[in-house]
Amino acid sequence: MKYISLFLYLISSSLFAQEKQLITYVMDFPFQEGIYMSFEEFKQNAPSIQAKIERQGSSLFVYDDSLEQMIRVNPDKVWGYSQSGNVYISYNEAYWRFLNIGALTHFSAIVVSTFQTIDAFGFPVEQRSKSMKQLFLDFENGKIYPLEHKALAPYIENEPILNQRFKKMKRKKDRELIVVLKAYNELYPIQFPVY
After folding, report:
1. Which pTM value belongs to this model?
2. Domain map of the chain by residue range?
3. Measured between alpha carbons, how far is 82 from 44 in angstroms, rounded to an integer?
4. 151: burial class by Cβ within 10 Å (0-12, 13-18, 19+)?
5. Please, which residues have CB within 8 angstroms of residue 107's CB and are 6 or more apart in sequence?
6. pLDDT tens digits, one per residue of 117-163
7. Which of 93, 194, 183, 177 lies closest to 135, judged by CA?
8. Distance, CA of 45 to CA of 38 (rounded, Å)
9. How many Å apart are CA 151 and CA 156, to the nearest integer?
10. pLDDT tens digits, one per residue of 58-97
11. Which of 25, 75, 95, 116 could form a disulfide with 88 if both were Cys (CB 3.0 to 4.6 A apart)?
């Protein structure tokens, strides 16, 4: 009977040791290094691909054991990755580093816009333009929004002090919106599991 009790104690203590612990995010948070296949993997701090990864220019490579070589990772096939304490999201066929991680996670990305114009002969022509945009990711649902007044307003309106300061902003430029986003993140800290 004594051995059975000891056995049950060891099993239960090892189960508790393997349980994940939630820790509030801070600047030097220990993200697991690897490639996230989904937003849920990022939220769980559990990248499904934990092989050697390497960034060369704007491309990401992962070491393939079976081929014994580095293979380029298609940004359209993964959600993002973590390396050296930084998290990168795959967006618009490239990887972009998170600048402020929180309930509203901020990042910058080059966004391609397509629009129609008329050429010199009167025919419609599709044109593209690229511009750097400020964006944020909602940590609850994984959706990405432009960092603009109308996208940020629904989050701020339930916070009286923050909403009052937000309404007083005259220009609502990127810098001011980033300050509001950071203040919101301080009010709503997020947590990640650590194993």
Report:
1. 0.80
2. 30-100
3. 13
4. middle
5. 89, 91, 96, 97, 98, 99, 135, 136, 137
6. 888 888 888 888 888 999 999 999 999 999 998 999 899 988 888 88
7. 177
8. 11
9. 10
10. 889 998 888 888 999 999 999 999 999 999 999 988 999 9
11. 95
